Amino acid sequence: MPTISRAPDTGVWLLTTPRTSYAVHIDETGAPCHLAWGPRLTPREAEELVLPAGEAASSFEGRPAVGEELPVDGGTRYGTPSLQVRYEDGSRGFEWQPTGHRVLTPSDGVGELRLEFRDRHYPLHVALHYRVRDDTDVIERWTVLRNDGEQRVSLLRTDSAAWSLPPLADYRLSHVTGQWSAESQLRRERLPHGETVLTSRRGITSHHAGPWVMVDAGDAGEEHGRVFGAALAWSGSWRITAQRTPDGRAGFTGGVGHESTCVPLAPAEEFATPVFAGLFTDGGFGAASRAWHAYTLRHVLPHGREVAPVLYNSWEATGFDVDEANQKALAERAAALGVELYVVDDGWFGARRSDRAGLGDWTPAPERFPRGLGPLADTVHRLGMRFGIWVEPEMVNPDSDLYREHPDWVLHTPGRARSELRNQLVLNFARDDVADWAHGWLTRLVADHGIDFLKWDMNRAFSEAGWPGAPDGHDRLWTRYVANLYGVLDRLRADHTGLRIETCSGGGGRVDLGILARTDQAWVSDNTDAVDRLVIQHGFSQLHPARAMSAWVTDVPNQLTSRTVPLRFRFHVAMCGLLGIGGDLARWSGEELAEGADLVAEYKRVRHLVQHGALYRLSGPHGELPTVVQYAAEDGTETLVLAWQRGPRHGLPRLPVRLRGLTPGARYRDARTGEVHHATVLAEYGFRPDLPSGDWASTAVHLVRVGQDEA
């Protein structure tokens, strides 16, 4: 069980997870201060870390910039604030006054601590929340602010939490950057002195950065070294600031919003920040990833234990030219391939013949589906597949009946142009009437047409982000939009418990722990080139599990890169996540259809390992050596090794990779060749995947435990 204890003499709070401890105390000024985050401590050991307050080195220094649980703007604090407040009288700042604490006794393996404070002068209350569990070292933190006064308060910055790191010889920051169709590009670089800001100002999580960080001393590897990290569960604009100070400390703070926005707090109003979850491990980046994956499967994804079906999506085959006849024909071919979920993409509704019209008019196009979607759904179900459909509920084309009826429903600022991106505008989901409208047509669509799956897309960022007519609307919309989006998803899932949803935003533009708590998987990138995907999937896997990663096999030459690689290579890359097929099956040859069916069947035999096993990145996607990943069953009974070689170079050594997650002393049989290997040899001396010769070679090796060596 997790434990939460308090030392009565020193007031030290100690939170304990299966392998780590986190300690905090209230200092002599009333401020909540950080003590420890790392290997497990006893309460007495944690008390030893309390140091008496010292004098500043000079009158220019002030309080240490790193070391408080939620640094505020006020007094002699000059570091990055996590909380900035402006009161109605124009004054700013916050002074901590403790008012109490609450401990929720651990039940069902979960314990929670709440530390309560108020400002010493103004009636603003702040509660710091901590949650620990008995099956993960991830610690969840968030903050709740309440205005008990009679005047408005503006939260200029309201981060969820600040994480302080112990003094290290050096600091290295790991994070992902990117752009549309090149998301999740992993960066590892020395943390510079000063402030490093990662952010999205786009209203969505964004393709350009992910709301998570990891920090090490510069010496951690895939399987060794201490790593500290945190991830923000938020799907709108966000900001994480990492700070390295001249006195040798570092930390990071993160939360909603960006500069120039604020969260208004009316009298009696409360604002709860999203969770900013943190993790410490001494097992390197691989252990950190596996811990985040396990946490996401158990405590984030609504159905993380389910085995996801093999999917087919019609986009590459038909584009906007969707009708009942061509979809039924594709469904027949998909079913013969072994597909279990058939998804109709864009083009099925309203006047949708291109991306210039129709968004917002969510009824089946009568000339294309004269009897609605029911006959197609019946055909798909008769073929033994689930039925899914693409939607983009947050968007509207100016050329649509919805926009002509409700031009005020979009984000806009009076007197400013309404910028169109992809010929569309953003509906203001912060408005309750817009959110209710979206929930209404979505729940009817699902119920009336037997829909099992929604691909929920969102194809542009915010602009002219205004909400005319609403008090404080231009500030409120940034958080209210996300809250109402979450509300629509929550209501929709409550209406239809069997419904499954994929989050998509032009690919990976909205992937975070907040949206994954309400969906079942994520479309990682619109780039389906298998070679590029190896890099994208490498970055994605740093935090997110394979069970959340949709991956498609599409046609060649690839539509984006014009690259041609073999069908088997494309399948092996897509088998690293939730296998999907997005090619035009009407153009596949008989040989391709037969090979595809064999590879779909192969994936089904091992997908439990991919979707729920432990991931080991044995060799990365950069450089000339093969890229190799491994998925191991928790009990060591079997494992899957996938490997890819871009092209041979004469004289390049074939280095073995050391497998992980095997039962010591066991023997494993190759399910394809029947060859038996000893676990000790595989783990200590290495394994050379049998890659075919030639360019774009790949292989999948399924090893099953068949016995144990004698002592």
UniProtKB/TrEMBL annotation:
<feature type="binding site">
    <location>
        <position position="526"/>
    </location>
    <ligand>
        <name>substrate</name>
    </ligand>
</feature>
<dbReference type="InterPro" id="IPR031705">
    <property type="entry name" value="Glyco_hydro_36_C"/>
</dbReference>
<feature type="domain" description="Glycosyl hydrolase family 36 C-terminal">
    <location>
        <begin position="627"/>
        <end position="703"/>
    </location>
</feature>
<comment type="similarity">
    <text>Belongs to the glycosyl hydrolase.</text>
</comment>
<feature type="binding site">
    <location>
        <position position="180"/>
    </location>
    <ligand>
        <name>substrate</name>
    </ligand>
</feature>
<dbReference type="InterPro" id="IPR013780">
    <property type="entry name" value="Glyco_hydro_b"/>
</dbReference>
<feature type="binding site">
    <location>
        <begin position="455"/>
        <end position="459"/>
    </location>
    <ligand>
        <name>substrate</name>
    </ligand>
</feature>
<feature type="binding site">
    <location>
        <position position="422"/>
    </location>
    <ligand>
        <name>substrate</name>
    </ligand>
</feature>
<dbReference type="Pfam" id="PF02065">
    <property type="entry name" value="Melibiase"/>
</dbReference>
<dbReference type="InterPro" id="IPR031704">
    <property type="entry name" value="Glyco_hydro_36_N"/>
</dbReference>
<feature type="active site" description="Proton donor">
    <location>
        <position position="526"/>
    </location>
</feature>
<dbReference type="InterPro" id="IPR000111">
    <property type="entry name" value="Glyco_hydro_27/36_CS"/>
</dbReference>
<keyword id="KW-0378">Hydrolase</keyword>
<feature type="active site" description="Nucleophile">
    <location>
        <position position="457"/>
    </location>
</feature>
<feature type="binding site">
    <location>
        <begin position="345"/>
        <end position="346"/>
    </location>
    <ligand>
        <name>substrate</name>
    </ligand>
</feature>
<dbReference type="InterPro" id="IPR017853">
    <property type="entry name" value="GH"/>
</dbReference>
<feature type="domain" description="Glycosyl hydrolase family 36 N-terminal">
    <location>
        <begin position="30"/>
        <end position="265"/>
    </location>
</feature>
<dbReference type="InterPro" id="IPR050985">
    <property type="entry name" value="Alpha-glycosidase_related"/>
</dbReference>
<keyword id="KW-0326">Glycosidase</keyword>
<dbReference type="InterPro" id="IPR013785">
    <property type="entry name" value="Aldolase_TIM"/>
</dbReference>
<dbReference type="GO" id="GO:0016052">
    <property type="term" value="P:carbohydrate catabolic process"/>
</dbReference>
<dbReference type="InterPro" id="IPR038417">
    <property type="entry name" value="Alpga-gal_N_sf"/>
</dbReference>
<protein>
    <recommendedName>
        <fullName>Alpha-galactosidase</fullName>
        <ecNumber>3.2.1.22</ecNumber>
    </recommendedName>
</protein>
<dbReference type="InterPro" id="IPR002252">
    <property type="entry name" value="Glyco_hydro_36"/>
</dbReference>
<dbReference type="Pfam" id="PF16874">
    <property type="entry name" value="Glyco_hydro_36C"/>
</dbReference>
<feature type="binding site">
    <location>
        <position position="504"/>
    </location>
    <ligand>
        <name>substrate</name>
    </ligand>
</feature>
<dbReference type="Pfam" id="PF16875">
    <property type="entry name" value="Glyco_hydro_36N"/>
</dbReference>
<dbReference type="GO" id="GO:0004557">
    <property type="term" value="F:alpha-galactosidase activity"/>
</dbReference>
